[in-house]
Amino acid sequence: MESSDLLKIIQGIPKAELHMHIEGSLEPDLMFEIANRNNIALAYDSIESLKNAYKFNNLQEFLDIYYTGAQVLIYERDFYDLTWTYLCKVYSQNVVHVELFFDPQTHTDRGVEFDVVINGIYKALVKAKKELNISFQLIMSYLRHLSEEEAFKTLESSLPYKQWIDGVGLDSSEKGNPPSKFVNVFKESASHGYKLVAHAGEEGPADYIWEALDLLNVVRIDHGNRCLDDEALVQRIIDNNIPLTLCPLSNVELKVIQRMEDHPVAKMLQKGILATIHSDDPAYFGGYMNENYYETAKALNLNKEQLMQLAVNAFEASWLSREAKEKHILEVKNYFDTLNL
Ligand code: HPA
Ligand code: ZN
Fold it and tell me: How far does the centroid of ligand 1 lie from the alpha carbon of residue 223, in Å?
């Protein structure tokens, strides 16, 4: 297939984003704009020199830059602009549903109140629902390099807003911070009605995926690449229809895989795993949903059926109502039916 045809096909697919950290959508131009108006000095003198720093050998090297970038976000308006800019961008890519992560501790640890963060993000999401018809869910992530006690404090701060928050997740430095460290706070989070997900098996071993499933009781695994090291785990994931929210460009940029051609998504689909494709931190990893679909499809030579399966899987794996899932899945299928491939 010609590249331009592939791009056009991908553009037209109705898409759901289920694995995206809103702080990871802070593009350099907006970072500079917000830094200027907040009188914050960045360590880089131009957008170009900042972008040159976006070369990572592993997750931690990325996280160090990502947390530094997030320091420009101080006021409600900053979180609102960040989220609104992201939503307008993905609207242009035919993303119709988003389930966004936000990292409250990245901000509360710097003295920015929880209320400021969530108000800015939520107001932009509500506007996008009304004006762009993008439905949404919001997922509060605990930073796993911090203690469980800190996560409990974050949970406490979230409770006045629990009608706005659909689930909790677990992100940041994976190695050495297993899901088992957060058993109690996940249990307590569930008791407040939050759905549960966790990053596992990105850099950490398959054992961390077992822990996320068996000890935390998560309903989805973010990344989960390393499940392929363990046949019994793959079977468990298939038997329980556990979605894996994969992020191909992120995997290449963080050297989870060496080349896009090595990405396991096609193998996972073939095994019957409910695998989906997302963008993780689009401002840092070179692309949003379309670019992730495109680079993966090109490198793995994905066919029309595989592309359709990925799009269907994302709605299936979402937290939309059954009725809304069926509606979007039908739209995806109708779209592929109209393509003469
Ligand atoms: N992995 C873990 N934590 C993160 C990531 C990621 O890719 N992005 C933002 N927080
Ligand atoms: Zn992630």
Answer: 10
Find out whether 250 and 279 touch, Cβ atoms under 8 Å.
yes
The answer to whether 8 touches 308, Cβ cutoff 8 Å, is: no
Rounded percentage of the chain residues whose pLDDT exceeds 90: 98
CA distance 148 to 185: 7
pTM equals 0.98
List alpha helices for 167-258, DSSP H.
183-191, 206-214, 231-239, 248-253
Burial of 60 (0-12, 13-18, 19+ CB in 10 A): middle
Give SS3 for 44: coil
What residues contact 213, with CB distance under 8 A and at least 6 apart? 221, 236, 240, 242
Q: Where are the domains of the chain?
A: 3-329
Mean of the pLDDT values across residues 103-110? 98
332 CA from centroid of ligand 1 (Å):
29
CA-proximal residue: ligand 1, atom 7 (nearest): 280
Q: Which DSSP symbol is given to 58?
A: S
Q: Reduced to 3 states, what is the DSSP secondary structure of residue 156?
A: helix
Ligand 1 pocket by Cβ (under 6 Å): 21, 24, 59, 66, 171-172, 199, 202, 250, 280-281
Which strands make up the sheet holding 275-277, listed edge to edge? 15-21, 95-102, 135-143, 167-171, 195-200, 220-223, 244-246, 275-277
- Exposure b/e, 125-144, CB count within 10 A at least 16 = b: beebeeebebbbbbbbbbbb
Q: Span 3-329: which CATH code?
A: 3.20.20.140
- Is the model's pLDDT at 2 over the cut of 90? no
Q: What are the tens digits of pLDDT across the range 138-189?
A: 999 999 999 999 999 999 999 999 999 999 999 999 999 999 999 999 999 9
Residues in CB range of 46: below 8 A, 6 or more apart: none
From 202, 244, 254, 255, the mutation candidate for ligand 1 (largest count of ligand atoms within 8 A of CB) is 202
Ligand 2 midpoint to CA 21 (Å): 6
